Amino acid sequence: MDLMTLLPNYYDKNDTMIKLQEILSAETENLDIGLSQTISECFVSTASAMLSRYEKLYGLEVDVSKSNSFRRERIKAKIAGAGTTTKQMVIDTARSYSNGEVEVIEDNENSRFTIKFVGTLGIPGNMADLKLTIEEIKPAHLAVTYEYVYNTWGNISALTWEQTGAYTWEQIRTVNI
Predict the structure, then answer these.
(1) What number of CA atoms fall less than 13 Å from residue 7's CA on the CB side?
(2) Strand pairing partners for 107?
(3) Per-residue model confidence as pLDDT tens digits over 98-145
(4) DSSP for 74-130?
(5) Considering just the CA atoms, what is the radius of gyration of the chain in Å?
(6) Residue 131 CB: number of other CB atoms within 10 A?
(7) Model pTM?
């Protein structure tokens, strides 16, 4: 911010006032940047320097080798997993890791449930950490299985062999075609 624009015109030729306002403008800009950074650190979604503190608060292992976005997702999942475990809590936690729709299929008679990833084809990233988080929030007596969705021959039957040649087998299984 140029503070000279806020002063009367008769200061435009005053070298002392120009220099003073340059110094004050720089300090004002630094304060504004510092305030924005401080506010950003108050929220998990925008924090970076304070992620270690959030991880410690929620009992997560601090791993600075992981990306900040990955660490934020893990913290948010842990926050969503606080309290009594419900079906919706498991859905929200799994969704935060997979960035897609999730179904939880309960099998109470056999003391188990299945997490089915219906909004993402293939195995979502961060599965190892999702499994750890689910183990932390689920009741100990329940077993969990994970179910993934892939393309089937029925999904790609409209493609010719020539068209499928543009894809690898892994892409055919896991890419929306």
Answers:
(1) 17
(2) 112
(3) 778 999 999 999 999 999 998 878 888 778 888 988 888 888 899 999
(4) HHHHHHHT-SS--HHHHHHHHHHHHSS-EEEEEEGGGTEEEEEEEEEESPPTTHHHH
(5) 26
(6) 14
(7) 0.54
